[in-house]
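Researcher: Let's try something more involved. This one mixes different molecule types, so please make sure each is placed in the same coordinate frame as the others.
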Amino acid sequence: MSIAIGPGEESLGVDNGKLGMWTFLVMDAMTFAGFLAGYARLRWKAPLDGMGQASELVNTVGSTVWPNPYTTFGVIGIQLTAFNTFILICSSVTMVHVLSDVAAGRIKRAEKWCLATMIGGLFFLGIQGYEWTHLMQVWGFFSENAAALPYNQNFVATFLSLTGFHGAHVAVGVMFNTILYLGLRNGKVGKEQYTFVEIAGLYWHFVDLVWILVFTFVYLL
Amino acid sequence: MANSHEEEKLWFGLLNPLYMWIWIALIVLTIVEVIIPEPELIGMEPFDRTFTVVSLIGLALVKTVLVAAYYMHLVGERPAIIPIACAPFLFSIFLTVGLFPYEDDVQVPARYQKVIKAPAAAEGGDDAKAKPTSALEKKANPANEVASLSQPKKENDTK
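Model: All components are placed in one shared frame. Result:
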């Protein structure tokens, strides 16, 4: 009995590379599930800031006052993040076009869509970087700032972990797409390497999928 | 063994026209998601908190399923992939059930507790002077290791 391990070989009727990426995504999804469940657990009992008597109490583990997203980020902040979500959804559809064009042998078009996907990812990271630095200044992370606002440590820890972990995935996705773009440009990725493009697409769509959940749980609820 | 390229052609014919429709659906659902917590943006009355939470989670799940099914091609994928892809959802359910805070009171060890007055109280405002000491101070008992920080359920669940 032979074992299928070479490129293009299949297990369970699925290309090995694709199966490997799915297995990785499952593991990654479980990590995100852990982060989100931890966030939900900490958030569940903590009253929102500005909701009655809770605002007069703060303790050192920061579990009593959970900031209201709309007062912490501000409406502009939420809408900026909604715009970021829009960017990521658009980059997902451009990634689908990369796959579609590579399958049809339209490599030049695929190259352009791939470039658009990369730009979308970089734009997303730029906005998130702006948001992080803005919040860290507000919270007085960078210097002794007398005007720094008090913050809930549980919120800050889970917020930075979730968005940071996701941001790291976006950064890796941009690198992945850069490799794909260079491959398309140099003629090393063509119709025959279709599965490689599909694997890159799977990763990118997963990043989009996770952001949908992070956006809902952290920013909207 | 099945040829991957033959398989691809099958679902490409099915999915290609759908890509843009899925994209439009995702955009529309995102707009709805932004409006639900703040219906004032379009001149509507605020919704009930429970409705807001349930509908936002529902919309997020719909968007997730759309991305996984159509952009990640699960809808046309080999059956072997489906249970693999669904595993994290089962894990999330177990995790959420396991972590769910069933107790009414949040127990915080006394050594972690530190009461800080609200800014108005710290400045010695009249309102602050009139207020009794915080609920935490009242409940904290030096004889016990932990103090209860129970909050009325209504306040916890309302925005």
